[in-house]
Each structure stands twice: as C-alpha cells, then as structure tokens.
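hey can u check if this looks right to u? its 290 residues, i copy pasted from the old doc so theres a chance i mangled smth
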Amino acid sequence: MMIKKILFFLYFITIFSKTLYSNDIILRDLADLNEPWGLSFIDHNTIIITEKGGNIKLFNLAKSQISYINHNLNISDKGQGGLLDIIYYNNHIYVTYSEKMDKGKSSTSIAVAKYNKNNLNFINIFRSLPPIKSGYHFGSRIIIKDNYIYSSIGERGKKDIAQNPKLHPGSIIRINIDGSIPIDNPKFVDKENWASEVYQIGVRNPQGMSLSPFNSKIYISNHGARGGDWFGEVTYGTNYGWPILGWGGTNYSGTKIGPKWKKGFKKAIHYWVPSIAISAIQIYNGKEFE
C-alpha cells in the first residue's frame, strides 16, 4: 500500500533557500528574490513568482534567468500585505493581493489576467468586504478545483469579524473562475444570512492551502495566536470557531481565548501548541522522501 505523506513547507524553501542538508537532500540557491510569496509553474522550465513588494517575475530554470512582468495591480504592501499568491491555470494568471483602498484601508482581493510574458492586464474578480485599516492577517492562499476558486481570507486582526458570515474576513471563499458565484454555495442552500462567496468561517490567518492528490480534498494551515496553529480540511458551511475557540493558544498578553475545541465547531486534523508559525503547505504523492 502506498504510504501517504503530508509535507509541511513553512515557506517554499525547497526552491529558494540557502544551502540546506538533510541526509541525501540538498537545497540550493537558484535565484535572488526579495520577499518571495507565491509561485506557480508555467511549464517544466518556467516559474512565475510574486514578491511581496509588488514584483512579478519569470524564472527560467534551464537558463537560471529572471525577467520582470509589468502589471496594473494597485497594491498596498503595508505590514503583512502586498502581492501574495499566484496560480497559472488555462493560460491565465490568478493572483491574490492586498488591494489599496481609500483612507489607508485595504482588502484581500483576487484578480485574473491572460498570460503574457511581458505584461499582465489584471481584472479584479473578488474583493474582500469591508476594507479594513490593518496590516495584519490577509490569508491569501488560492486553489483552483473543478473550475472553482477557493481562497483563504484572513480576519485582519479583528477577531470577532470571523464569526460574522455576512462579511468576508475570517473565512474561506469559493467563486467560479470568472468571479461569478456558484449557485450551490451555502447562502443559496441552507445559510441565507451568509455572504454569497463565503464557504467556511471562523479562521484567523490561513497562509497554507493545498489540493490533495490522494482524495481531491482541500486542506489549509492556519496561524493561531500564541499557540494553536492547526492543519485542517475545507468543508462546506462549517465554522472553525475563531475567536470563540483558541485552538490551545492564548492571547499575546497571556490571557485565555477559549477552549481548544468544543462540540458544534469544525475540528482541525492536527494542532501545534506552542505555535510553529506554519505557512505554505504541500501534499505530496510520491516516493522522493521515503
């Protein structure tokens, strides 16, 4: 029987890191980057990369060459925000980013452009509402499955907003790849008070998301506060409980948040107490690490 292994990459150091050794594995510098955040393969030799400050770069693996791609995104790189995740899909580029809004506010947004190696003309297809004045907790991972976009939307450091399903922060959203709303999202089935894009609620800052090659399910990793990081599944209409639940962690002041879990809320698959600051994740199907 094939052994199923889940590898947690705290950052995508597998490609862009200082030399690191583990038995027979050697990781090498391949490119000089400034705060890289997301990447996606265009083909076997070409990777498209985002840098938090706003650059989009193409990296040619065969030639070890980097080139810049111009774009039209209006980015706020305050705090943890910036140009974040990226996916190449059907000759289009999808990105998540913190969109600069009025009065110092920003939103976690999703945009799409037809792929061009010189210039990307993006069109917004989702904007998290309401815009919030905060440099924290954007979430911003993105997965495409069956022509649906799933994306993690952080609660921007506003805690209780994650329990308001009428708003986007603190949720997992699902939209069609053109930005329209699936007719079987929770709002249209059994949760009429939810925002039309919201698929799951009660998350804090999910910075990892992966589509499993074993069961075609989507999994996320989520930052707790002082303790309480976790790994869990994206499921229809459920609530991970933040900030009613503390997932085993406490506030940074040391005060209690809530129980690790209780009946009526979605339970994570695995918790880390103390926190390990888990970020990007990849679920791997192969024999490389046996």
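The mean pLDDT is 90.
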